[in-house]
């Protein structure tokens, strides 16, 4: 993709294929010889982990769809039949359900890593923006998927989220009715959500293709945030990063398997093992953990329309980060001021998630959580729209190392053994 | 109330509902349910399995006590002889099924009732689900003072607190209501139930069942056994799951070790 190709077809068949569909060349250049900064740390293994997560979700999802019945009268029982009567159905469903949480865990780490090391900055703006699009698609897919078991939380979660659209003036109620395909969440809604839940992962896969393509033009950023200057700064992707990614992937899978086999309902809500009942509202409607920060923002604002705008704005804001950050230095490692604001931001996100999980009138240490959520929301927006642009202008960054190789090997950076 | 206002109410808080419900029953008393009792079960922990004897006794309690009012629709008779469950023999499971009558399929003439209009019944087989005690929800409510006895097939997974919660409910009757708390008419005091008023009458009694294995049938023993049974009903593949988990973990840890060695060797001179 970037730079001249080093692929050298070895057999007659490879030459034949290379002249017609240079797929081996593509694989060779992107996954084998691709020059990768030699200083990538553990946080850079999550791209591969995320690809794995998407694969797991699609494979388990396709199998689940063979047994699932998208019908309001049958959906709940069909999921239970998968758990009880389908061979290893429990394994496939628990992998899929926990896989969603693992996917979001990995994507959040991936995003915070990008933020910390300035991976969104030129020339990687599009990688970041495409990533935000993937994140958005993931949230939509996860939401549709959570509706499918047709338990109490599925039903009421769908009701609350789709009702958000009715906050839009004039046409809001029409949009909600159009989304439901009915005058309330019901069978028609379940059917279309199933259809979309099956469709979106393949769109995600395509957009992930763009994400990786865009990555392979400028190449990886790295913890120093400085450009690759010479071949000594890099190692070929294979075997160096294939083995490193594989090792950390297996560690991640151990965590994943821990949930699947030993605590499969850890992320779940007991209410979702009760069949959907439009006449009984659960005392607390809580979304899945990965949506809680946005839920907290929504709830902290007394006006519904304003709440929806703030919640949407929190995600849309991410698109503008490449231009909101005015610093010439990418990595927070060399940005003493920004580093502190970054960690405060991370704390705010966790705090918002915590507030989203509590009852709306809850208080801790005498402080109403709704106010904690308000202040954290305020900081969330201030971080991007005020702090980022201003800090970039006033901060004096630390001295950057001369090169990646020099930082890795020290000043006696002779040519390392390749 | 239309859905829009309904959802707005939900978003802005379930506060009002909670306040009203607790105020209605007791002034100044917080009727939030007590934390469940810390009962220990054999199926806890990464290697825990269901106690086979407890499962079989629990099934007896379910059959003789719970099933009078509660359905367990997701259970079939063939589950009773499956590995990881009560593990009755196939003959025992067949006999247990045969003792239960279920509505018969239409006969050769297409009839589902006899001349007197009584529905035709047949003995259950291993393939049949446990039949519900009432034909429909309205019948269930009519027979239980308006309350609907929930289906028990997933009760342990469908309640916050799981097995301990169900155990606490079953053993939480007979406690004295605090002064000032008035038990609602036709309800029973149970501090482990949200709001403290439960529609279910105390289901268990000492020697309420006669165990064939000689176990003394105290309320605690019956509750422990039936909760074990209900935990299995909620999660019948748990033993298989944990067994798989052990093998998977062992494999992954070895694989991680090999990959770590390869990683260290390859990167030896690279950083």
Summarize this entry quickly.
The complex is a heterodimer of chains A (418) and B (271). By secondary structure, chain A is an all-alpha fold.
CATH homologous superfamily descriptor of the largest domain in chain A: Cytochrome Bc1 Complex, Chain C
Q: What low-confidence regions of chain B span 5 or more consecutive residues with pLDDT below 50? A: 1-26
Q: What is the number of beta strands of chain A? A: 4
Order of helices and strands of chain A: HHEHHHHHHHEHHHHEEHH
Just name the CATH architecture of the largest domain in chain A: Up-down Bundle
Q: What's the rounded overall pLDDT mean of chain A?
A: 94
Assigned CATH class of the largest domain in chain A: Mainly Alpha
Task: Describe the structure in your own words.
The complex is a heterodimer of chains A (418) and B (271). Chain A has 418 residues and is mostly helical. Chain A has 15 helices and four strands. In chain A, the strands form two sheets. In chain A, strands 1-2 form a two-stranded antiparallel sheet. In chain A, strand 3 (363-364) and strand 4 (367-368) form a beta hairpin. In chain A, helix 5 (89-116) crosses helix 10 and helix 6 (125-147) runs antiparallel to helix 12. Chain B is mostly helical and 271 residues long. In chain B, helix 3 (52-64) crosses helix 7 and helix 6 packs antiparallel against helix 7 (219-234). Chain B has two domains: 26-75 and 148-253, Cytochrome Bc1 Complex, Chain D, domain 2 (Orthogonal Bundle); 76-128, no CATH class. At the A-B interface, helix 4, helix 5, helix 7 and helix 10 of A face helix 1, helix 2 and helix 8 of B.
Outline the fold blueprint.
The complex is a heterodimer of chains A (about 425) and B (about 270).
Chain A lengths: L11 H9 L2 H10 L2 E3 L8 H22 L7 H10 L4 H28 L8 H23 L4 H13 L7 H9 L6 H30 L17 E3 H26 L29 H9 L3 H21 L11 H22 L5 E2 L2 E2 H26 L9 H6 L9
Chain B lengths: L2 H10 L2 H11 L26 H13 L25 H9 L2 E3 L17 E3 L13 H6 L19 H10 L16 E2 L7 E2 L20 H16 L3 H30 L4
Helix pairs in contact in B: 3-7, 6-7
């Amino acid at each position: 993709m970037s730079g001249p190709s080093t692929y050298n077809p070895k057999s007659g068949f490879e030459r034949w294929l290379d002249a017609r569909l240079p797929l081996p060349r593509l694989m060779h250049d992107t996954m084998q010889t691709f020059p990768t900064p030699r200083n990538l740390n553990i946080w850079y293994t999550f791209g591969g982990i995320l690809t794995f997560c998407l694969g797991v979700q699609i494979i388990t999802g396709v199998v689940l769809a063979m047994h699932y019945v998208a019908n309001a009268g049958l959906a709940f029982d069909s999921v239970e039949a998968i758990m009880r009567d389908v061979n290893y159905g429990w394994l496939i469903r628990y992998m899929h359900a926990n896989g969603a949480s693992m996917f979001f865990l990995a994507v959040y780490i991936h995003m915070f890593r990008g933020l910390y090391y300035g991976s969104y900055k030129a020339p990687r703006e599009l990688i970041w923006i495409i990533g935000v699009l993937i994140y958005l698609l993931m949230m939509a897919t996860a939401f549709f998927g959570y509706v499918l078991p047709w338990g109490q939380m599925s039903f009421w979660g769908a009701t609350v989220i789709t009702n958000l659209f009715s906050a839009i003036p004039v046409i809001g109620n029409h949009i909600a009715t159009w989304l439901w395909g009915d005058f309330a969440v019901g069978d028609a809604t379940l059917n279309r959500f199933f259809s979309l839940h099956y469709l979106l992962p393949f769109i995600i896969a395509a957009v992930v293709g763009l994400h990786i393509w865009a990555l392979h033009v400028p190449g990886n950023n790295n913890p120093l945030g400085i450009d690759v200057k010479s071949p000594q700064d890099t190692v070929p992707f294979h075997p160096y990063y294939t083995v490193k990614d594989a090792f950390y992937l297996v560690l991640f899978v151990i965590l994943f398997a821990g949930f699947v086999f030993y605590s499969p309902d850890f992320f779940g809500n007991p209410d979702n093992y009760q069949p959907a009942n439009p006449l009984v509202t659960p005392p607390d409607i809580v979304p899945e953990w990965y949506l809680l920060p946005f839920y907290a923002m929504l709830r902290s604002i007394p006006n519904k329309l304003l709440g929806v705008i703030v919640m949407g704005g929190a995600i849309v804001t991410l698109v503008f980060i490449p231009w909101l950050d005015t610093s010439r230095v990418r990595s927070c490692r060399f940005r003493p001021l920004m580093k502190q604001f970054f960690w405060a931001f991370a704390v705010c996100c966790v705090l918002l998630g915590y507030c989203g999980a509590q009852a709306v009138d809850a208080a801790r240490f005498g402080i109403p959580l709704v106010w904690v959520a308000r202040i954290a929301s305020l900081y969330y927006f201030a971080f991007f729209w005020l702090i980022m642009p201003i800090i970039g202008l006033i901060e004096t960054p630390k001295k950057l190392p001369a090169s990646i190789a020099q930082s890795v090997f020290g000043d006696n950076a002779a040519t390392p053994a390749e | 109330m239309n859905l829009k206002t309904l959802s707005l109410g939900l978003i802005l808080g379930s506060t009002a509902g909670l306040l009203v419900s607790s105020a209605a029953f007791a002034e100044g008393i917080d009727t939030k349910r007590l934390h469940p009792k810390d009962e220990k079960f054999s199926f806890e922990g990464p290697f825990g399995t269901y106690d086979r004897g407890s499962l079989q006794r629990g099934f007896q309690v379910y059959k003789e006590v719970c099933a009078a009012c509660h359905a367990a629709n997701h259970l079939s008779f063939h589950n009773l002889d499956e590995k990881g469950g009560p593990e009755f023999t196939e003959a025992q499971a067949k006999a247990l099924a045969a003792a239960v009558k279920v509505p018969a399929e239409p006969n050769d003439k297409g009839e589902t009732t006899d001349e007197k209009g009584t529905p035709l019944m047949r003995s259950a087989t291993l393939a049949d689900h446990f039949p519900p005690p009432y034909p429909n929800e309205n019948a269930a409510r009519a027979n239980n003072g308006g309350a609907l006895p929930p289906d028990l097939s997933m009760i342990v997974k469908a309640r916050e607190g799981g097995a301990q919660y169900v155990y606490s409910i079953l053993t939480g009757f007979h406690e004295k209501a605090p002064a000032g708390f008035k038990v609602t008419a036709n309800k029973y005091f149970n501090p482990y139930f949200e709001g403290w008023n439960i529609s279910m009458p105390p289901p268990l009694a000492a020697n309420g069942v006669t165990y064939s294995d000689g176990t003394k049938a105290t309320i605690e023993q019956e509750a422990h056994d039936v909760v074990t049974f209900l935990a299995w009903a909620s999660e019948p593949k748990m033993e298989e799951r944990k067994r798989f988990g052990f093998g998977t973990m062992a494999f992954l840890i070895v694989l991680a070790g090999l990959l770590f060695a390869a990683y260290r060797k390859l990167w030896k001179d690279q950083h």
